[in-house]
Amino acid sequence: xxxxxxxxxxxxxxxxxxxxxxxxxxxxxxxxxxxxxxxxxxxxxxxxxxxxxxxxxxxxxxxxxxxxxxxxxxxxxxxxxxxxxxxxxxxxxxxxxxxxxxxxxxxxxxxxxxxxxxxxxxxxxxxxxxxxxxxxxxxxxxxxxxxxxxxxxxxxxxxxxxxxxxxxxxxxxxxxxxxxxxxxxxxxxx
Length: 190
What we know:
Layout: H1 7-22, E1 36-42, E2 53-58, E3 66-69, E4 75-79, E5 85-96, E6 99-104, E7 106-107, E8 113-114, E9 118-119, E10 122-123, E11 158-161, E12 176-179, H2 186-189
Parallel strand pairs: 1-9, 1-10
Antiparallel strand pairs: 1-4, 2-3, 2-5, 5-6, 5-8, 7-10, 11-12
C-alpha cells in the first residue's frame, strides 16, 4: 500500500482549516442574526456614537416599541419577540454652544423587517435630503414669511450663512449662499 508523501502536513492543513471555520466570529458576518435587530451607530467621520437611542418600532401594535442604547463601540442588539414586523430609527443628543440638540440619524436601510432579524446601521448626517420626503432635509431650515400685501419678492432674497466656529460635529464649516424660490415651487421649500 502506497502512502502520501506528506501525511502529517496534509493532516495539519486540514485541521487548521477546520479550526478556522469552527472559530469564525458571528459579529464579523454582515447578515442578520436570527431573532435580533443589530447594527452600529456612527458620527459624520464614521466614529462610533455611544448612548444613541435606537427604537425598534412594532408596526402592528401601537406604542409597543423596543428601546436600547448603543454601546461604546456604537453597537446595539435587540431581541425581537413574537411574529411581528418592525421599523428601526435612531437619534442622539448633543450639547453645542450651551444648548442641547437632538439629532435624528440616517439609516442605511429604511425598509421594515420581520422578527427573523435585520441589520440596520445609522449615521449622523448634517445636510442632505431625507429619503422619506422630498421636502424634508437633515440639518435645519430658514423660513422667510412676508405679511399679507407685502411687496418683498421672496424669490429675490439671498441668504448667506457664515459659520463663526466649528460646526456641531467639530468639523470646519463653509459659507452657504441660497436664494429663496418662488412660492409653490420646489426651491421655495429647499
